[in-house]
Every structure is written in C-alpha cells, then in structure tokens.
Request: fold
Amino acid sequence: MTFDADQREDLRRKFAEYAETRSPATRDHLVEAHLGLAEYLARRFSNRGEPLDDLVQVASVGLLKAVDRFDPERGVEFSTYATHTIVGELKRHFRDKGWAVRAPRRMQELYLRLGKIVSSLSQELGRSPTIPELASEAQVSEEEVLEALEAGQAYRFASLDAPSPGDDDGDSMSSHLGEEDAGMIDAEHRVALSPLLAQLPQREQTILHLRFFEGMTQSEIAGRLGISQMHVSRLLARSLAQLRDAAEST
Amino acid sequence: MAARDEVRLAVPATPEFLRLARVTASGIASRLGFTIDEVEDLRLAIDELCFVLVGNKDRDGSVELHYRIDRDQLDVEGVGRFDDDETDPMLTAFSRQILGALLDDYDVYRNHGGHSCFRLTKRRHTEPEP
Reply:
C-alpha cells in the first residue's frame, strides 16, 4: 500500500496528534487509512481454510492494536510496525486453534474421495487397503494420501459440555444404534475406567467400545455400523482428543 | 527399506509440533505396507503416548523420536527432554485399554538418563501384495 507525499505527511501529523490527544476521531481516521494493509495481510493467510472475512476481522484487531501502541518518536515507519503486529495477530488466531487448523479445500476433497475408495477397495481385496494401493487408485502420490488423512483429522475440539453437532458425511448411524446398545454390557467397567466416557454422544461411545473393548478393527466397525472406515477413524480420533482435553481440565 | 533402518526426529514439546511425530510415523508405516487400519491405529497411539509425555498444552523442552524399522515392524521411542521432569510418566487404566487395542507392545518409563519416555511396537499383520 502506498501513499503519496502529502498523504504521508498528513498521516505523520495525525499520529503525532493521536500520541498526544488519544482522540477517538483521530484514531478512527488512522485505522481507516490503513484498512487496506490489514486486508492485504489477511489475504496472505486466506489459503488456510479460514473465511477471508474472519481473517480481515482478526487483522483489523491487529491494526487497532498497532495504532494504539505505535510510537511516532521511535522513527519506525507505521506500516512496518503495523505489519508486524497484524501478522502476529493472524498467526495467533491460527495457533489458538491448535492443530485444528482447517485443511485446504483440495485436501478436504481428496479426503472425501478417499473415504469411498477405502470402502470399494476393502470389498475388492477382502482386507483393509494399504496407502500405496489407495494412492494408485486415487491417482495421487502416497504423500498426498497421508496429507489427506491428516486433513481429515484436523478435528475441531468441541467441548464435552456442548452436544456434538451432526457430522455424518451423509452416513446415518441412528438406525444402527438400537441394536448396539443392547450389546453394551461392561458399561460399568468402562465408566470406572473413564467417567468422562459417559459424556460422549452415544454413537461415539459405541465406536470406542467396539474398538477398544471388543477389539474390532476400524473397518469391521465401519461394516457393522454401515458407515465409512474413515468416518470411524475420525470419530475415534476426535473422541479421544476430547477425552484427553477433559481429563486435563479436571 | 533395509532391516534396522532408523529415522530420528526432535521437536519442541508442543501439540503443534508433535503432529510431526504422527505424520512421520504414518509416512514410515505406509512405506512398510501397513494397511490403512494399521496406519490409523498407529496415529491414534502416537497421539495418546505423546499426550502422556507432554499433555495438551506446551511443555518447556523437546521430544526426541526414534523410529526403528525392521521389515514388518515399526518401533517408536519417544524421549522427553523437559526443563522440568519431576513426575514419572503415568498411564491411566483407560489409556492402557486403548493402547493395548492399538499396538502390539508399549511402555512408558524413565530411562537411565532420567528422561520420561515411551516406546511402542506396531507390526504389519497382512502380507504385502507380491
């Protein structure tokens, strides 16, 4: 972003004025004058799966901080100072999401495609497919398959207090739950092991039970419940992450 | 891959970087011809064991990972190098239940140097296609 000499002089005066008066009107003027910078920087982070509008908001918060903290006496250009502050704010935004940063769209798409390929290859081979087999069927590299698996696991933490929202890639589980419930002996044993388990939604409890207490593989659970293996995988990973989260905060 | 190849990785002890421990494990497992079920088990297990060492939040220090490859088997050792390493690594009964289902073998312990550690073994159970 560029200003001509007159504008720069005007801004310099406004910053000096703001440093002295802390006038809200001057502050507004300075923020507005640099919104383009905030937008520009937000755009640089826009390939990480967060909506641009959200990022512009975050960048604007950074810009506000920069205007408030900028010391014109220091002899640093405001744009230099503000860039640092705004990028810091954007990075913090992503970091606060931990490893739950949303995956790029391309990887999300590959992940969904792989879900179907895992099912069809499992049927064809009579066993769970390997990564090279998946890569060759999807016509992508093994690394891309692995990256997509990671992308699928970019689970956002939902607090255990909040009911988990629907998350069925089109799979319906409700019709299968009734019969599984009957098989869930051992409930007391499990609750003793982890009282937090009981706070998980019913379908997650069922999947954890089948995997860790009945020793079924992910593919077997998928077949039994009529959902995809990758969906089972994601629910398992997310449930365990939630349990760890909850265990740590008690 | 030849027998007893070793891959080493050292990362800051934060969940963000420990993600690389998981990525590396699945990369190696994939080369060993593990099925997707086995790869996913390994990933869950690494998450669980890293949590035992580090917890959910950042910890001061680093974790050193040794991946030892032996034909149809992957052994991973995680060595915590923490600024403050007073308490022994502990597994809850629930963690044991999970890890027992996911792995062929595992343990958490304090090594001779006094570092909190974990180790795991995951074998390939299906023969790769000729």
Helices of chain B lie at 15-31, 36-54, 93-102. DSSP finds three helices and five strands in chain B.
